[in-house]
Design goal:
The complex is a heterodimer of chains A (293) and B (330). With 293 residues, chain A is mainly α. Chain A contains eleven helices and no strands. Chain A has a domain of 192 residues. In chain A, α2 packs antiparallel against α3. The longest helix of chain A has 30 residues. Chain A starts with a helix and ends in a 19-residue tail after the last helix. With 330 residues, chain B is mostly helical. Chain B has 14 helices and no strands. Classes of the chains: A mainly alpha (293), B mainly alpha (330). Chains A and B meet through α4, α9 and α11 of A and α6, α11, α13 and α14 of B.
Chain lengths: 293, 330
Amino acid sequence: MDLVLSFLTSVIRQTVPILYVALGVLVIQTSGILEMASEGKMLLSCFITAIVAFYTGSAWIGLIVGTLATGIIGVIYIWLIQEFHLNQIIVGLSFNTLALGITSLLFRQKYAAVMEMNPILPTFEFRPAGFSIPVYVAFLMVPLLSLFLKRTTPGLKIRSVGENPRAVESIGLSVKRVRYMSGFLGSLLIGIGGAFFVLGVSGIFAENMTSGRGYIAMTAVSFGKFTPIGTLASVVLFGTGDALQYRLQAAGNIIPHQFAQMVPYLMTVIALVVFAKNPNSPSSLGKPYYKSR
Amino acid sequence: MLIELTGESALDTYKVLFEGAFIGKNNLSETLIKSSILLLTGLSYAFVAKVGLINIGAEGQLYIGAACSAAVGIYGTFLPGALHLIAALLAGFVGGMIWGGIVGFFKERFGANEIITSLMMNYIAILVVSYLVHEPMKDMSQTYPYSYRVATSAQLPRILTGTRLHAGLFVALLCLFFYWIYYRYTSSGYRMRVIGQNRLNAEYAGYNVRKNMFAAMAIGGGFAGLGGALEILGVQFRLFDNFSSGYGFDGIFAAILANLHPLGMILTSVVFGGLRNGGLMIQVKTNVSSTLTSVVQSLVIILVLMRIFDRLPIWGKKHSNQSLRKRSSD
């Protein structure tokens, strides 16, 4: 019984960061931007959060600063895409490399030596029923986001921009402004995901610590048919894989740990293969938008 | 600017970077060694990009290719002389081909998004190699997880005495030549280009789009695998964890910067190889870590993508805004 319970706890802990990131990706993708940069944003958020939390000694300040910073980075990223009409896949990839480079460089150069003396970062102290607040908020976000996208005016705007930007423009709304908004909101969510990952799950910062979780979150969104509920379902599935991986590694010699580590990636590939046909993605996804003259 | 942040003089650091990259016989040949691998991983992107797919799995293909060629290099000692080397190189190509082919197969049969599958296959490949060097291929006389040494008969011959520059450079150039000829002068290359430019047209013309996509993925993967073979047979001689450190991605960026043009790719590969080599030199001579180069590199790429340079007076006329717009809305 204890084993089951501790496994479930670890599933939830692994699920939460990916869930935040996936919901963030969902918000951004719904407005028609192909969000390849979630990996880099998550890593940057991990880094900023770790530094701030380390120096202030407070997990909450770290979380807030990391989240806001990621939101701002998200806006800059959307600006790059919108104003220069870049190829969203390639710019996303190079953004991720840039994020990896900057975090590794600064970490090695400035913080690694300091942090090694006291590597454990502050965590969230207040834990009703065993989980910290961000965990509950994550699961609460799912119905809230569902309501936001379906029932509120800004949510509707985001969805319609994703489906048909021209039509939105023809009724006098600014496509760009809506995308800035969704980019900011989504990046905030990604930021929380990164912050929680470093403070609530790993407890230390390491180079390239996200190792593909941003991409997995991105897969979870399309796997979940671009709805918050579906995203939750697929993220829980991936989280289970992730938790299983740690369990297998801890179990030791049954199978080599490298194969255990493959589980999340294999699951992603399988998910893509099995549910490849995906009619539900926003129709303008990834297409650069040119304002009509 | 970033360097000043770390407390070293920026100008000095860049000077070390440049000298480490291009000055002197030794540095230059180290740069060329790295460039030839970047050229191959770049080709794996370019070859696939021509049919309109995006292969970012070069890193994984390189790992698997390296593993296969190392296996042949270590255990294929019964093969005589040059045949051993050729077999080892071929094994690298085939290994990459299989890894790229899997992605191609998923795309062709199930329509799975090749961007994410190829990316995920990278992580899987790195773990496969890690497993191989920890368990079955581990050299027991070594403390660290290294594979056995590749037999001398399978090592690429040195072409410049006193340096590590090896014949892999010619292999890379040969592949580039093939890429150029193939897309420019052969009918199957033409078909692939048509598919890349307009899938619907190609379907009307009766081309087998899916088969061609699969083939391109496999061949592209093969190039990256060959890159891995060069690293193992020419430089490292042993397989170990994380030996590549991002050759796959850097090659892709080199190809993108060159706009998939063969000659341009030589230039960008050499520049990126130089950055890579100079970055190592920086790490040795100053306190700045070599990750600096990946920062510089990705900044350059984003700037180029932003077409900042087009706005400078020298390049400005080449792409007018109008033609740009046409290209992106296709």
